[in-house]
Structure formats: C-alpha cells, structure tokens
Amino acid sequence: MSKKEIEAKWDVDMEKAAVYFEELAKSMRTGTIYIRSSEEIVVLKPSKIIEIKVEACSKKHSEKIEIKMSWEKIQENGQDLTISPDKN
To answer: Residue 36: what are its φ and ψ, rounded to 5°?
Structure first.
C-alpha cells in the first residue's frame, strides 16, 4: 500500500482550532477519520490503543503545544490471516 500524507499549517482563531479538535474527537469515536485538503484525502482508522505524545512549551513571547497520536493498523476481517494444517 502506498503512503498517503497531508501536511498543512495556517493561522485560525481559537474557536476554529477548538472546532477542529472537536471534529477529530467525533471522528475517532466513529472509528474513521477523514482528513481532506483540496483534492487530497487521507482516511485513518484508529485502533483501540493509541499512543499519545504531548509537548508543551512556554517562552517569553510565545507558547505552543504539540500533540502526536499514533497506532498500529488493524487487520480488517482477517484478510491476511490463514489457518491451515499445511503451508499452502
């Protein structure tokens, strides 16, 4: 399977940023996250166990928080699993 990736960076007001996180939370609860940018789309299916990494920094004139989430892909419907008494 080929790698699909979207990276974006822009300025939004605090309310719009909160809406993005609320939509992310809703999507995670449904089991599928659709990330769209122009013509690109990445579809993510979070597993039950998610690794979360948080970094926060406060400097004299700026602050930031970085949140990274990652998980192992789930094998769907056992498509790659075979149980057999022989190697075929």
So the answer is: -120, 140
